[in-house]
Amino acid sequence: MNTFIVTGGNRGLGFEIARHLAEDPGARVVLAVRSMDRGQDAARRIGSNVEAMELDLASRDSVDSFIENWDGPIAGLVNNAGVQFADATHFTDDGIEETFAVNHLNALRLTLGLENALQGGRVMFIGSGTHNPRHPTAAPFGFRGEQYESIRNCAEGLDSSDKMGQLGKDRYATTKFLNMVTTVELARRYDANRILFICLDPGLMPGTDLARTVPGFLKFGWYYVLPIIARVLPDSSTPERSGEAGAKLLTEDRASLHPGGIYTYECKLSERVIDRVFDPEIGRRVLDHSMAMLRSG
């Protein structure tokens, strides 16, 4: 039996990835979620081979507890859980800006902590076209692209003097950049036969809960207007479509996948990834400094 873990699997993209993975009756799918009530409800809606386990990626202790309590091999880990805040700056109990902690740092903590169980398996991070300042869909919506300077700067919340709405977008885009850089750098350091690291750029998916902290009029547009407009926008998708792609990338022949590849919802290598994602020096700094922060925390 192949076991898959999907963080944030109770809704949106994570739910759809889990749903498609669970179509294989021989698979076991674990929804690693902050709310057990919502996770168990999602598991019931998907199928009998799905279960929920508690995991709060904003909490170092929760991540460490999940790792300590995990038992058995893992065929695939999907670091899907993510947040974006437009209302205020949020910090974890460790004093780390929460977008950075959830989207990048603690996803890395979870991955490295489960390393032994992942032997022969795959790890999928979730990227985003928002990292690209010239992205044809993200840029018109106010995304300026990644703002990475250092891991410490990211952990502190980037430039806190900026307007909050823009800052929330910058933090999100930067953490997605870090996810992509981390994918590429881990692929450099690990034999793909040991652990295969890949990344999914699911495209613009209006209607998900990612915009739950934006003002009311913007929220209305995200949930009700954009899903219609997105049909004609480049690099736009749906949770269902991108979830199917994510499940396929986790289960198809390993030999057909490029270690460290950034894949689109069409299961093709993305052509919109900026060169900085593949810069070996940036990759070294991002991973080494993130790991140093994990050790010091």
> What is the CATH T-level topology?
Rossmann fold
CATH class: Alpha Beta
* Spatial separation of the terminal alpha carbons: 35 Å
What is the tally of beta strands?
A: 7
**What summary fits the major beta sheet?**
7 strands, parallel
Rg, nearest Å = 18 Å
Mass-distribution shape: globular
Note down, in words, how this protein is organized.
- The protein has 297 residues and is of the alpha/beta class.
- The chain has one domain: Rossmann fold, CATH 3.40.50.
- The protein has nine helices and seven strands.
- The protein has helices spanning 12-21, 36-46, 60-69, 98-113, 151-156, 164-189, 216-229, 239-251, 280-296; strands at 2-7, 27-33, 50-54, 76-79, 121-126, 195-201, 262-264.
- It has a seven-stranded parallel sheet with strand order 3-2-1-4-5-6-7, sandwiched between helices.
- Strand 2, helix 2 and strand 3 (50-54) form a beta-alpha-beta unit.
- Helix 3 runs parallel beside helix 4 (98-113) and helix 6 crosses helix 9.
- It is globular, with a radius of gyration of 18 Å.
- The two termini are 35 Å apart.
- Residues 216-225 have low confidence and may be disordered.
Give the topology, please.
Blueprint (H helix, E strand, L loop, with lengths): L1 E6 L4 H10 L5 E7 L2 H11 L3 E5 L5 H10 L6 E4 L18 H16 L7 E6 L24 H6 L7 H26 L5 E7 L14 H14 L9 H13 L10 E3 L15 H17 L1
Parallel strand pairs: 1-2, 1-4, 2-3, 4-5, 5-6, 6-7
